[in-house]
Amino acid sequence: MAITTPEILWGAAATTSNSYQVFTTEITPDLTTGTDGIASKVITTTSLNGKKVMMGIDVTSAYSDVAGEVTLQLSADGLNWTSNYATVIADSNPNETGIKYGIVDLTSVEVPFYRLVFNSAGNNVGTSGNLRFKYIVPPSS
User: pLDDT tens, 30-89?
Assistant: First the structure.
């Protein structure tokens, strides 16, 4: 089991009427091996520090019917990652398309780099699914 980091870019933020910013990646490519995990591109912002943040995935093509967790990892340098800092979604039901969110408590976190990971546990999710990573930045206080 490996965690792959495809070249999927984060798009520009969409701002909601109440000043939340929604970020979404491009669609991930198919996995080569069904037990691999997929990591998002690095989230390079300190605007998540000290907040509770909604994070998740948008399954655009279904994976196999197994528990596909979504986790958050942290880094001080954008290269070396913690093991899973937080479980965002314990089972994202990757065999069902659609958007799935969880809330991550980052109120005691001060780091410059984050990344989301789908299937870090190495369950066999298959090779035919696709997703987009998502996160929502609350407005500044």
Answer: 888 989 999 999 999 888 999 999 999 999 999 998 889 999 999 999 999 998 999 999
pTM above 0.90, yes or no: yes
What are phi and psi for residue 5, nearest 5 degrees?
Answer: -125, 85
Cβ count near 91 (within 10 Å): 13
100: which 2 tokens? 């799935």
Q: Can you name the residues that pair with 137 across neighbouring β-strands?
A: 21
- Does the 3-137 domain belong in CATH 2.60.120.510? yes
Give the span between the Cα atoms of 16 and 38, in whole angstroms: 28
Q: What is the DSSP string of 60-96?
A: EE---SS---EEEEEESSSSS--S-SEEEES---TTS
The distance from CA 123 to its chain's CA centroid, rounded to whole angstroms, is 17
